[in-house]
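Person: At home tonight, work slowly through the protein below, taking as long as you need, and write a paragraph about the fold.
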Amino acid sequence: MKWIGRLVLITLLVSVVFVAGAIWHMPAAFLVDQARVQAPQVFRQFQLSGTRGTVWNGRTLLSVQGQVLGLDWHIRPLGAISGAVPVSLRVEGDALNLSGDAAFRFDQSVEAELSGAIALSVLDDVLKRQGIEVPGAVRLSDLSTRVLPQQQWLAETRGKLAWPGGTVSFPVGQTLETRDVPALEGDLTQEDNELWLRIRQKGLPDLLMDIRVTPDQRAFVQVRRRLLDVVDMPWSERSAPDDVIFKVQQRLGRR
């Protein structure tokens, strides 16, 4: 009867090897399909295509509003002993380059820390509607965010942004003004479920403008008179530097 025990053992070993091999070589499309289902509503406007590789090392293409981005990932399964599956991420495109790490936790929440640069040309559609042209790229650092399962919006977000300065064009009445703007920096936070970006001149504490983005993807921009002082544009002497002199509301993306 020993041969029966050996047969059972061999069968179990072959089954384990087969299952492990199947999981290891599971196509990346499986992971992408699962992510599509679990992603918050704000991310579902991305169209996914050209997926290749495996669940552990893969690549897919993200398309949104005419922009095509390549997303590469590398999952480190042994890291799961810490209570989360660590993943290295890289997102690249003509106007965007981000890289960093994410952690997929067993409660299905996701935390990510990223850094990189985004060319302001990605905002051309939004800016040109207001007659504004801004050159260059924004540098992102210490960008972290958390997403909860089945949530329709981000749970927590914070980070820092920096813009090196440049020549900006914008309408004033019926004319187009051009001004040299110094380097700017901003803090990105999430408060009461809304994203806030507060922008200042580099190295100075006073606020120049702020941008608020709501979960329904509406952006609200407020510009303070202090920004006009920085670019040497005249304004009413009765106003204070912290007075809001310009407001605009704009929907972002598609719902």
About this structure: The chain has a mean pLDDT of 78.
